[in-house]
Amino acid sequence: MRVFYAIGLLLLINGQVNSLPTTLNEEDIYSKFEEWLNKKAEETINAITESSTHAKSLLDKQIAVGKLKIEKSTADAFHDLHTWQDQLGPECYQQGIQQLEILKSASISEFLHCDRLKKAFEDVGKMFKETYNMTADLAGKVKNAVTGLSKCQSGNQITDSLCIMKYIWQVKNDINSVAPTFTIYGLDIKRLAMEIKDIYDYCMHPTDHKVNQQVAAILEGSKLCAI
């Protein structure tokens, strides 16, 4: 599977296709060509996978930070209610606890269902799906080219040389044809990663403000209840 994805990512090094050695002996041209493909794939696979994984990791991290912030705001209020338990009495104390539990759950749900956060989740999902689709398509083309290259063994030097160049050129053209799509895809991953902090701020600010207001109201209501 690693090689499968790596081959697909070759299009990111489109400009390096022309660097394939042209002075190889006929007896090892096939193995050298296949080695070159795998080498170039290994050089690029980390860059693209790290970019997509980094974007997802940033999103997961910001979600965890948001949930933790909400939980901390309510945790402080829970602590206050526990401290006041004797003064509040059982009924007012339980009422405050229940209201805080509801507030915490509702606030986390509101944060997670923020329109831009949901869109970011969708974009990440599409990102990995698109990776699979594009690499599967290119992997098939590369496989066909390498398989065809192995057939260039008629024994006729001119015929075999032309056959070899045909398949090398085929790979080059295949990479050229899909390179723009992968270039745009790579930029989209970077854009999403850069936007994630802004998305967090957009979704967290109103929720955080509302939580603080309602926590204060619940604590005040619990005090009034005990009067």
Automatic annotation (TrEMBL):
Top-level taxon of the source organism: Eukaryota
Signal peptide annotation: 1-19
UniProt keyword annotations, A-Z: Signal
Entry keyword Signal: yes
Protein name: Putative secreted protein
Organism: Panstrongylus lignarius
